[in-house]
Structure formats: C-alpha cells, structure tokens
Amino acid sequence: MKFIAVLILLCMLTGTAAAITLPQVVSFPQPVVTGVKPIATFEGGQRFAAGDYPVIVLSGSYRQMGRQYGSLMKTELNEEYAFLLDTLVKRGYTQQQVREIGRDIPALYPQRIKEIFLGMSETSGLTPDDIAVLYYGAIFQLMATPPVPASCSYLATWGNYTTDGSVIVSRNWDLDDSVTPYTKWYVLAVYRPTDGSNSIATWSPAGMRPETFMNSKGLFIADDNSGLNDAAPETRPEFITEYFRFMLDYSDLKGLDAGIRGANTDVAWIVDVAGPDGASVYEKMTNKTRQRGGEGVIAAANHFVDPVWNLSAPPEHSLSRYNNLLRQAGEAKGSIDAQKMMQIRDVCLENGGAKFCHSLLFGNTYSSNHQVVFMPKSKTLWMKTMDKDWQKVELGPLFGN
Predict the structure, then answer these.
(1) Within-domain flag for 166
(2) Angstrom distance (rounded) from CA 299 to CA 321
(3) Within a domain: residue 343?
C-alpha cells in the first residue's frame, strides 16, 4: 500500500484467467445508430467504429460488461499493457513486481469496478493484477518525469452565450507528452447495466482510469488538477474512481451536488460538472468544498479561483489558460454552438488559447491528450485525441434511450 500512496501523490501533482459460466445476458434492443460502423459483437456487447475511434456498447451485469470489454478490446488492451510493462521494466521492475503492485490498487474500489476488472481478465488474456496496473497507466507513465501541476481545463457556456441558450460543455485532458503514445488506444465505452442504474459513457485509453464521464440523464463530470499539496489525513477511497458511482447513481444536478459534497476527497481536486440545466465547478479540499457558478459561462484550469481560500497567486500556465477561455467565450458571446466551442478549444496556448500543443513547460512538452465537447440536452458528443480530428457521436441511441 505504500506504493499506492506514492501513486495518489502523483495524482495530486499531475496469464489468462479461466472462463466461468455466467447467466444469460439480458436482451437489449439493438441501438439504432447513424454515423458509426458495426465491427464486432461478443456476449451481448457491441463494437463500432466512429471515424478513427472505437466505440463499445456493453450490456448486462458489471462482470458481463467487463467480459464484453475484455473481448471487444483485447488487441488494444494487450498492446497497451505491453507498452506500459516495457516502460516499467526499463525502470527496473519485473513483471512479478508489477503484478504485486496491481494487487494493492483495487483494495478500496467499489465492488462494481472490481467486477468489471474480473470480467475483463476473463476474456482479454490479462490477469486481474495486469488490468489493475493498466488502470493506472497514465500515472505510471508520468512517474519518470518531475511532477508538474499542469493538467486539464474546462469551459461551459449557456444562456445568452450560446445560440439557443442550451448548455455546451468542453474539457481538455492535458498531460506530459510521455503519455501521448496512449492516444492510439482510446475508446468510447458505453455501459448499460441491468441493475437499474443509469447508462454511462467514458472516454479514455482502453482499460485506463477514465476522468471524463457522461450519463444517460445528460450529466457530465470531469476533473482538473488543483495544483495543491493537500492529502487526506487518513485512508480514503480514490475520489476520481467515485465518478463511476456518481454517474451510475445520480440523475440530476441536485443529486450529483449532494454526492460530490458528501464524498471527501483523498487529495484536493477541481471537479467540473454540467447537466441540461446548468454547469458549475467544485473546488474540493480534503476538508471543505466550495462551488462556483456563473452567468452563462464558467471556466477552470489548475488553480482554485474562489477568493475565500486566500491562496497565493496561481501559476502563470494556469492563470493564462483560465483567462484565455473566459476571453474567448466573451468574444464569441451569443454565437457559441458546438462548432464554435471546438474552435475555441483548438486554439493553442501560444496563440492565446488554452490547448497544450506539444507546448514547452518546465523543460517538458505538454499536450491536450484528449478533448471533448458535450451537449447535455441532446446527449451529443464530439471527441478527439491529440493530432487527430474531432468525431461526432450521438450518445442517446447508444445509452438505449
């Protein structure tokens, strides 16, 4: 567990299992989807292609959805794990040591996540310990570089900022370029559980811890590095993995607000939230939560904005991106639709925007590893990875609405 504590600190700053017989998968109506190409099916799960990106739709129990994930993404999961293992071996770890680390990782995870891990291991050719290590792939990758509190930004607009008043959400997931190789294994994963929970969608490299979520009620949640050294005084569940629970269990912003406030963080985070009725940002210390709203626009980067914290001046890389986003939104006020939001998000930091475009920062290059634009009311998503094009996906049919 000592090693896991190191991984949590980094979060702050930056053989085949035997198959088992499972109950019959509950039959779901096949989603009527335009703009995606059917590729494969497995035990009720489906794989599509949306442009250059794979999309998987998983149905059933959490174990069954894990099995579908493991089979439909088997090639990507194994390639990604081989890349990560090679990285760790070059740093002096053996595969056995890596797997031992993996045994500690899920210790405090909800049973639903553990069931997904187990299901993935049954069909992917990776062990449950391998799957757990892959879940932390980006964090392991970042361990080779000095921790820099620069990752992610958020912009949401609505009311008189958008063309029709509806909420439009955007987020950049920014990381050191050592993580860029993972862009080849991205997948939009849609989970449709049969236990009565909401359907959810995640956008991340295959098997890796998602930090961008949407659900069938139009809720959105993501995070930004706070840049603060604030760790909980006792062992707590990993807050980012709690996003699964939030998206599965909450159907409106009022419920999501209660969930976020009621979950104490393991480290300080900035939490980005939106739904059909609005958007906000939560600044969460390990002992206090502050919520920020806005009049038609709200932004976040990697520093707490609420003056009540009485913190020192934020770093320039964060303040400039935060101010650039608000300025760009102001200049486009009244004309922001999804296309305009994508244009705003594609302006590089060097050109007055908030996107890291292999940008030099503290001696390393940084990039917006992935980006999304999401419209909660229509559940329409635009997604992209660094150096690729935007891709539109209608999530409603995939959620099974």
Answers:
(1) yes
(2) 9
(3) yes
Mean pLDDT of 329-333: 98
Q: Is residue 268 included in any domain, yes or no?
A: yes
- Rounded to 5°, angle at Cα 363 from 357 and 369: 30
How far apart are alpha carbons 168 and 55 in whole angstroms?
A: 22
- The number of folded domains in the chain is 1
CATH of residue 344: 3.60.60.10
- Helices 242-249 + 253-262 axis angle, to 10: 150
How, if at all, do strands 53-60 and 186-193 pair?
parallel
Domain carrying residue 158: 153-180+218-399
Say if 124 falls within a structural domain: no
Q: How far apart are CA 73 and CA 54, in angstroms?
A: 9
Q: What's the length of the chain?
A: 401
**Sign of the dihedral defined by the CA atoms of residues 334, 338, 339, 345, in that order:** positive
pTM: 0.92
Half-sphere exposure (Cβ direction) of 259: Cα atoms closer than 13 Å: 21
In DSSP terms, 192 is beta-bridged to: 59
How far CA 323 is from CA of 168, 224, 302, in Å, comes to: 18, 16, 12
Task: Give Cα separations from 302 to 231, 284, 305, 366 (angstroms).
Answer: 16, 12, 9, 14
pLDDT of residue 140: 87
pLDDT tens digits along 90-112: 989 898 898 888 888 888 999 99
Alpha-carbon gap, residue 256 to 213, rounded angstroms = 13
**pLDDT for 208:** 97
Q: In whole angstroms, give the CA distance from residue 262 to residue 368.
A: 31
